[in-house]
C-alpha cells in the first residue's frame, strides 16, 4: 500500500521514477493490466488497487491532472468501472482525458447529450473545485498511515468485554496467549476431541471423574480449583461461590481491569494459573507425568514475581506490601521516598513555582 501511495503522490524516489519509466510507460496505475511477466511486487500492487482506492480522498483542482476515466476520484470508483468503456466513445472525450477537460472556470461542465453521465453530473456538482489537486489518505489531504492502512484490511468486529483483561501491558506473552484461547473457549478439551472422534473418553485427566470442558477445567475441577483458590488468597481476594470459567471470566472483567498494582497482579495471577494448569493437563496426557498443586503454585509464583520485579514500581502501602509478601516479590519493587515525592508532585502539582521560590528564599 505504501508503494502505491508513493506512485500516486509521485514521491521523488528512484523506485518511483523507474516504475513510471519501465513499468507504467505513460499509463495510469489504474489503467495497468495484469501481466504474467510482472514481478511478484507488481502483481501484489495491482491486486491491492481496489483496497487502496477505498482509502483515497481526491481533492479536485482547477487544472486537475487526475484521469477522468480511470482514477477512482468519485466515491472511490473510476468512471470506466462504473459506466463501462462505451461511455468513453459516447462522450467523444479521449481515453486519456483528465478532469480539467470537464471543468470550465470553477464549475463542472459535462457533455449534455450523454445520458450515462446524468447521475455523474449531479454527484460531481457536490464536489467543490479547489485551487490544485490534492490526494489524501482517509481524509482530504491526509498523509499515508501504516496504522490506518492496516486497519483498512484487517477484519473488524466489536470489542469484547474481556479485551483489557487479556491485552494489557506487563503481561507474560505465553500466558496472555493461553488466556486469550481460554476466553475464546478454543482449547481442544476432551469433550471436543470426543466429538471429533479422536478419543474414546472425555474424562478429566486430573482424575476428578467429570467430563473435561473449558468451564470444568478452569476452575471447577478439584485440582485446578485448589491452585486458583490459593492464587486468589495470595491476591487477598474473596473466594468465589461458583468456580466455572463463565463466572471466573465475569469476575475478571469486574475486578482486574485498571492500572493499579492490585489489578495488574490479579490479571497476571489469572493468566499464569490458566497457563500452568493447561500445561499440567497436557503433561499428564502426553508425558504421563504429574505434578502436585504445590509445584504448580510455585511455578505460578515464580513467573509472576519475576515479571513484577522487572516491570513494576509501586507505592509502599500496607495493601501492596501484603500482596508483595504473599507472592515473595523482592522489596525493590517499592519506590523509594524521594521517587515517591517526585511522583506525587508530578501528579498533584504541589511543586509549583511559588513553592520552588519559597525553598530558595525568594519572594
UniProtKB/TrEMBL annotation:
Transmembrane segments: none annotated. Residues 144-228 form the Reverse transcriptase zinc-binding domain. Coiled coil: none annotated. Residues 344-363 are annotated as: Disordered. PANTHER family: REVERSE TRANSCRIPTASE ZINC-BINDING DOMAIN-CONTAINING PROTEIN, REVERSE TRANSCRIPTASE ZINC-BINDING DOMAIN-CONTAINING PROTEIN-RELATED-RELATED. This is Zf-RVT domain-containing protein. It comes from Cephalotus follicularis. The lineage of its organism: Eukaryota, Viridiplantae, Streptophyta, Embryophyta, Tracheophyta.
Amino acid at each position: 500500500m505504501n508503494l502505491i501511495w508513493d506512485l500516486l503522490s509521485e514521491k521523488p524516489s528512484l523506485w518511483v521514477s523507474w516504475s513510471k519509466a519501465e513499468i507504467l510507460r505513460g499509463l495510469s496505475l489504474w489503467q495497468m493490466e495484469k501481466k504474467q511477466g510482472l514481478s511478484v511486487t507488481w502483481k501484489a500492487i495491482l491486486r491491492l488497487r481496489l483496497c487502496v482506492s477505498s482509502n483515497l480522498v481526491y481533492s479536485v483542482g482547477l487544472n486537475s491532472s487526475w484521469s477522468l476515466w480511470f482514477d477512482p476520484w468519485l466515491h472511490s470508483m473510476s468512471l470506466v468501472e462504473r459506466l463501462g468503456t462505451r461511455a468513453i466513445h459516447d462522450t467523444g472525450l479521449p481515453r486519456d482525458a483528465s478532469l480539467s477537460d470537464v471543468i470550465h472556470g470553477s464549475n463542472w461542465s459535462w457533455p449534455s447529450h450523454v445520458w450515462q453521465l446524468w447521475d455523474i453530473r449531479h454527484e460531481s456538482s457536490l464536489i467543490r473545485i479547489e485551487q490544485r489537486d490534492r490526494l489524501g489518505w482517509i481524509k482530504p489531504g491526509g498523509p499515508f498511515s501504516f496504522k490506518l492502512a492496516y486497519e483498512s484490511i484487517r477484519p473488524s468486529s466489536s470489542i469484547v468485554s474481556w479485551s483489557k483483561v487479556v491485552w494489557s501491558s506487563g503481561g507474560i506473552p505465553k500466558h496472555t496467549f493461553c488466556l486469550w484461547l481460554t476466553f475464546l473457549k478454543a482449547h481442544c478439551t476432551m469433550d471436543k476431541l470426543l466429538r471429533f472422534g479422536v478419543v474414546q473418553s472425555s474424562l478429566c485427566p486430573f482424575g476428578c471423574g467429570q467430563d473435561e470442558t473449558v468451564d470444568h477445567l478452569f476452575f471447577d475441577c478439584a485440582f485446578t480449583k485448589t491452585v486458583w483458590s490459593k492464587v486468589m488468597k495470595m491476591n487477598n481476594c474473596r473466594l468465589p461461590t461458583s468456580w466455572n470459567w463463565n463466572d471466573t471470566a465475569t469476575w475478571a472483567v469486574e475486578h482486574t481491569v485498571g492500572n493499579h498494582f492490585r489489578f495488574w497482579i490479579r490479571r497476571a495471577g489469572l493468566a499464569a494459573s490458566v497457563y500452568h494448569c493447561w500445561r499440567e493437563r497436557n503433561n499428564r496426557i502426553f508425558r504421563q507425568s504429574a505434578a502436585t498443586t504445590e509445584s504448580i503454585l510455585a511455578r505460578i509464583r515464580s513467573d509472576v514475581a519475576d515479571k513484577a520485579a522487572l516491570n513494576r514500581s509501586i507505592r509502599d502501602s500496607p495493601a501492596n506490601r501484603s500482596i508483595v509478601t504473599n507472592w515473595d516479590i523482592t522489596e525493590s519493587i517499592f519506590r523509594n521516598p524521594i521517587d515517591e515525592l517526585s511522583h506525587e508532585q508530578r501528579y498533584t502539582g504541589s511543586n509549583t513555582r511559588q513553592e520552588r521560590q519559597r525553598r530558595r528564599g525568594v519572594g
